[in-house]
Amino acid sequence: MPGPLSGIRVVDVTTNVSGPSLTMILADLGAEIIKIERPDIGDDSRGMGPFWEGEGVYFLHINRNKQSVVIDLKKESGREIVYDLVKTADVFVENFRFQKAEKMGLGYERLKELNPSLVYCSLSAYGQDGPLCDRPGYDAIAQADSGIIGINGAEGAEIARVPVSVLDQGSAMWGAIGVISALFHKQKTGEGQLVTTSLYETGVFWVGYHMLSWLATGNEPKKNGAGHTAFAPYGAFHASDAPVMIGISNNSLFKRLCKVLGKEEWVEDPRYKNNPERVEHRENLRVAIENILQAKTADEWVQLLVDAGVPSSKVKKISEVVQDQQTEAIQMWTDVKHSTIKDFKLPRLPFELSSSPVSIQKAPPKLGGNTEEILNKLGYNKEQIEQLLNDGTIQIEAKKLESHK
Fold first, then answer.
1. Among 22, 224, 380, 383, whose Cα sits 20 to 30 Å from the Cα of 241?
2. In this record, what's one Pfam family (predicted)?
3. Angle at the Cα of 161 from the Cα atoms of 159 and 166, rounded to 5 degrees
4. Residues of the chain under the 70 pLDDT cut
C-alpha cells in the first residue's frame, strides 16, 4: 500500500545529518526523494564512521528510500539539471550555510520562478535573521548555544553534549512537519511557500520550561544528572550491578516505593512527607535508597518496582536495547535488502499509520546509482548524458561508469 506522501517528488540537496533526516521522514512516508550528491565525495555522512562493509553507519541510518544522483552544482550545466528537476517537483530541501543557496542560484525566489507551487524548505543552523544567522553550525555547537549543554549532566561532572544528534534530528522533525503543512496548504490553495527551521530554534524550544523557570524565579536552572528539578526521588540509583532509573512525581508513588524498599516509615518522616521536602533533602534520600538497592541486581529491583506500580527501568546499554523484547515486540527493526551488507536492518520511524503505512522499501543508495535513470526520465538522451559525464557535470555508479568509457 502506498504511503500518504506517495506521488510527492522531493529534490534533496542536503548533506550531513539534519537535512537527510528530514528527507528520510518524507521518504518513509512515501515521497520520491531525488538526492543530489557531489562528485566523488557525495554526502558528507558517507564518510562518517564507523563503517559497515565500507558504508558509513550515519549515512545508512538516514538515507533509505532515496535515489542518488551525482551532479556538480558548481557548474552551470549541473544547475540546469536541478532546474529541470525542480520544474517537476513538489518540494525542494536544502541545508546549506545561510545564503549559500541564493549565491548558487538555488534560492527560494529563483526556484519559485521555475515552479510557483514549489514548497521550499531551508534548514539552517541559526535561522534566517539575527547576529548568528551566517555562522556555520553543527549539532554540538547549537546544543551549546541554546543552553542544552549548560544544563546537561551532573553538577561538577565534565561538560558533555547530549550524545545523540538531538538538534539535527529534532530540526528535521520540525522541517518535515512544516513541509507536510505546506503541502496541505498547497492542496487547498495551489500555493507553494517557503518553510524554514533551524537547529538553534529547536534547541531553544527544547529548553522552554527551563527558560520559563528562570523567568519565574530568577534562579539559574541547575544540572541534575539523571535527576529532575521538580521531583524527588527522581533519577538513577545504583543497584548491585547497574543503575536503576526511578521516577517519583507524587506522594502516592513515594508511598509505593517506600513499601518496596521496606521503609514505610519514610512516609511520615518530616524530611520526606511531601515533594518540596523531598526535593530539599534529595541527597539524603538518594544515599539512603542506594544503600538499600545494593542488596539486589537492577533487574530484580525493577521487577519489584514495576509490580508495585512504580515507574522504573534499568539504565540499559545500547546493545541491550537492540536485543530488547520490547524493541522486538513493537517491531522497531525492519529487515532491508542491501547489495553488500548481510542481515541489514534499520529502525523504523517511531509512529505508525493504520491506513497508509510508513515503510522502508529500499536500502540507502550507492553514490550516483540513479543518475542515469533520472536523467533519462527528464528526457536527456544518450549523447547528452555522455557529454555531461565527459565534462564532469555528473557521475554515475562506478560499475556503470565503466560501461560508458
1. 224
2. CoA_transf_3
3. 165
4. 398-405
Contact (Cβ atoms closer than 8 angstroms) between residue 171 and residue 94: no
Q: Which of 168, 241, 269, 307 is catalytic?
A: 168
Residues 33 and 160 in one domain: yes
CA distance 203 to 396: 38
CA 201 to chain centre: 15
- Out of 288, 314, 340, pick the residue that ends a domain: 314
**Do the Cβ atoms of 182 and 159 come closer than 8 Å?**
no
pTM of the model as a whole:
0.93
- Residue 164 contacts by C-beta under 8 Å, 6 or more apart in sequence? none
For the stretch 304-360, pLDDT in tens is: 999 999 999 999 999 999 999 999 999 999 999 999 999 999 999 999 999 998 999
DSSP H/E element including 56: strand 55-56
Cα–Cα dist 337/335, whole Å:
7
In angstroms, the Cα distances linking 273 to 153, 237, 265, 287 are 28, 20, 10, 17
DSSP letter assigned to residue 247: E
Contact 371, 395 (CB under 8 A): yes
Are residue 299 and residue 358 in the same domain, yes or no? no
Three-state SS string across 283-351, please?
HHHHHHHHHHHCCCCHHHHHHHHHHCCCCEEECCCHHHHHCCHHHHHCCCEEECCCCCCCCCEEECCCC
| pLDDT tens-digit readout, 54-97 | 999 999 999 999 999 999 999 999 999 999 999 999 999 999 99
Among 61, 69, 62, 59, smallest CA distance to 89 is for 69
**Which cell numbers hold the place of 375?**
536523467
Domain containing 283 equals 234-314
Domain shared by 144 and 188, yes or no: yes
- Are residues 32 and 127 both part of a single domain? yes
